[in-house]
Design goal:
The complex is a heterodimer of chains A (about 350) and B (about 260). Chain A is an all-alpha fold and about 350 residues long. Chain A is built from 15 helices and no strands. In chain B, the strands form three sheets. Chain B has a six-stranded mixed β-sheet, with helices on both faces. Classes of the chains: A mainly alpha (about 350), B alpha/beta (about 260).
């Protein structure tokens, strides 16, 4: 017999294939999970709007929001003070938590794919340490909050560009030299931060630097948010559009190239997009660790490794997670707990659980 | 001509790996590449695939100069089947096959139903469509290799290169993979595969290419190429080449063991 049983030839391919072409059970499940997460995020936002030391009724919150829509005006049944608090403090903070959580988780997922390593976080290429150094310098120079953010953002981007430049000149495995360069330059900037702390005025600048390093969303203002939202949106939208191609990138550069994907160019694009999102997040919120590492992991457990599902899931879960943690940060005790500390408290034990748990078959 | 190589030379730094290689491979031909480790088989493949681009000479695939083509255009002419290996992340088999179907898509686009259909059809053509929704890392090595062949088919390129497709497989899977490849070449694809078993060439190739020291040592019908002399020359092993089934197939037997 010429035709082996394992190679049916073209004729066999014409058989009916409709039933098997329907999305698999796992794929449908992932779709349901994504919808559920979207609903969960909306619910979390609604609850968060009402949470706070200063009471705002659910009805009032909704009415104040609806009132903002042009052409609709509702008779005011809330105090001006409530409105000020709602629009200047609570709402910006919730929006910022969502944006930062979404950016860090998405960037983390993207970096984990690009470097074919599930233990990578968004600051692998020095985005955080660069930002920290930029912020510390600006604080030393006596800048206002806005200047600190701007300096943090600029230094963050510059650090990653420096890492890319160095690694493009290095010999050897592309991924390895990029990660190595990132680690080295990170530690260089980390030493820079330590130095600024050493020379900082201990009554004034030092606490400001220390507090910034711990990460917090307290500085949320609509003006900041508007500015940060541009690089964040560009980064996240590009990563979302590239999500299928990141799958191919995880197979290795050579294999990707033989399948028609220019791996080097794609990797740079992913890194630049993820860095924009990360740098903007760090610039407005300080160092918030763990979200970018743990959330993609959790999402992978929920919807699998396919980036077409992993990216949207990370976006939604990252946003909900940071919003919930920020609610705890602002409500748990009389004085605000820096959110960076809380994410580490939640993130690190969870991560230890992940790497020690038995792999399910 | 599926592949036409003229005066190809390639060096890693000062070390010359390929020296003045010229050969042509017709359409719908299964070529078996033999040669000891480190003689430049993989380097030759990398040059043809465009992964090594700093070569001298020229390489034409399906009449197109590979040097003039973009990464995406190259992938439309030639596809590659690597040795099965475990990716870092778990993907569904169908998603693995789908990865090669993007050669007609823009950078920011994802594949649609048309591509999924093509990926599924490729799995059917290899006869492993029942694996479509299994996790790639959880199927056997032989099944993984068949899935990778399906992935190469889904790419719709007329020429395929395989680097030692069966080196990590057991006997049963080796035979299944090779007979699948044999069948695909009969259906019109040109396939170039490297192997370490001279015996395989008799059953599973139309032409045998022997590379030694970065040069074409021999190229032609397997029965003409694989001789006692050649195996002794390139592998340093004395064999007897025996004919079976009225010379439908031949086998190489190491003489040392028989003489005892």
């Amino acid at each position: 017999m010429e035709n082996s049983t394992h190679c049916k030839g073209v004729e066999a391919a014409k058989d009916a294939k409709a039933p098997a072409l329907a999305p698999s059970k796992a794929s449908r499940r992932a779709g349901v999970i994504i919808v559920c997460l979207a609903v969960f995020l909306v619910a979390t936002v609604c609850v968060s709007l009402m949470l706070g030391r200063y009471p705002i009724e659910p009805g009032q919150a909704i009415a104040m929001l609806v009132n903002q829509i042009p052409g609709i005006s509702i008779d005011q049944f809330w105090t001006d003070q409530q409105a000020t608090l709602f629009f200047n403090v609570r709402l910006p903070r919730i929006v910022l938590a969502i944006m930062v959580g979404c950016c860090l988780a998405t960037a983390g997922a993207a970096f984990q794919g690009t470097f074919q390593n599930p233990l990578v976080s968004p600051d692998i290429l020095g985005a955080s340490q660069g930002a920290a150094f930029g912020a510390a310098l600006a604080i030393l120079a006596g800048s206002a909050a806005f200047g600190v953010s701007l300096s943090a953002f600029a230094f963050s981007i510059a650090t990653v560009l420096l890492v890319l430049l160095v690694s493009s000149r290095a010999k050897g495995n592309r991924i390895l030299v990029t990660v190595l360069a990132g680690t080295m330059i990170s530690s260089l900037f980390s030493a820079g931060v330590s130095f600024t702390k050493l020379v900082a005025d201990p009554t004034d600048d030092l606490p400001a630097i220390t507090y910034w390093l711990m990460g917090s969303l307290t500085g949320a203002k609509m003006s900041n948010i508007m500015l940060a939202s541009v690089p964040m949106a560009v980064g996240v939208i590009v990563l979302f559009a590239l999500r299928w191609r990141i799958n191919i990138l995880t197979m290795g550069d050579d294999e990707a190239a033989t399948m028609g994907v220019n791996a080097k160019r794609l990797r740079i694009l992913v890194i630049v997009a993820a860095t924009l999102a990360t740098a903007a997040s760090v610039a407005v919120s300080g160092m918030i660790g763990w979200v970018g590492l743990v959330i993609p992991h959790l999402c992978r457990m929920m919807v699998g490794s396919d980036y077409r599902k992993l990216i949207p899931t990370s976006m939604l879960l990252g946003a909900s997670f940071l919003l919930i943690v920020d609610n705890i940060a602002r409500l748990a005790s009389t004085s605000e707990i820096p959110i960076g500390i809380l994410t580490a408290f939640v993130g690190a034990p969870f991560f230890l659980y992940l790497i020690t748990r038995k792999k399910k078959v | 001509m599926s592949i036409e190589i003229k005066n190809l030379s390639f060096s890693y730094g000062r070390h010359e790996v390929l020296h003045d290689i010229s050969l042509s491979i017709p359409d719908a031909t299964l070529v078996n590449v033999l040669g000891p480790n480190g003689v430049g088989k993989s380097t030759l493949f990398r040059c043809i695939l465009g992964l090594n681009s700093r070569y001298e000479g020229s390489i034409f695939v399906n009449g197109k100069d590979m040097r003039q083509l973009s990464v995406k255009e190259r992938a439309r002419e030639i596809s590659y089947i690597p040795q099965s290996h475990a990716p870092v992340y778990d993907y569904e088999v169908l998603d693995v096959v789908l990865m090669s179907t993007g050669t007609d898509l823009g950078m920011l686009r994802s594949p649609g139903p048309r591509h999924i259909e093509r990926a599924y059809a490729a799995l059917e053509r290899i006869g492993v469509e029942h694996l479509a929704h299994r996790t790639y890392t959880q199927i056997s090595g032989g099944e993984q290799q068949l899935v990778l062949i399906a992935r190469a088919l889904a790419q719709n390129a007329r020429t395929i290169i395989m680097d030692e497709p069966t080196s990590a497989l057991d006997y049963g899977n080796t035979v299944r993979v090779l007979s699948c490849v044999r069948q695909l070449a009969r259906e019109g694809l040109s396939i170039v595969q490297s192997t370490h078993q001279p015996d395989q060439a008799f059953l599973y190739s139309d032409k045998t290419l022997v590379i030694n020291d970065g040069r074409v040592f021999a190229y032609g019908d397997p029965k003409d190429v694989i001789t006692k002399q050649l195996v002794s020359d390139i592998y340093g092993v004395d064999v007897e080449v025996n004919s079976l089934y009225g010379d439908k197939v031949r086998v190489c037997v190491p003489v040392n063991e028989i003489a005892r």
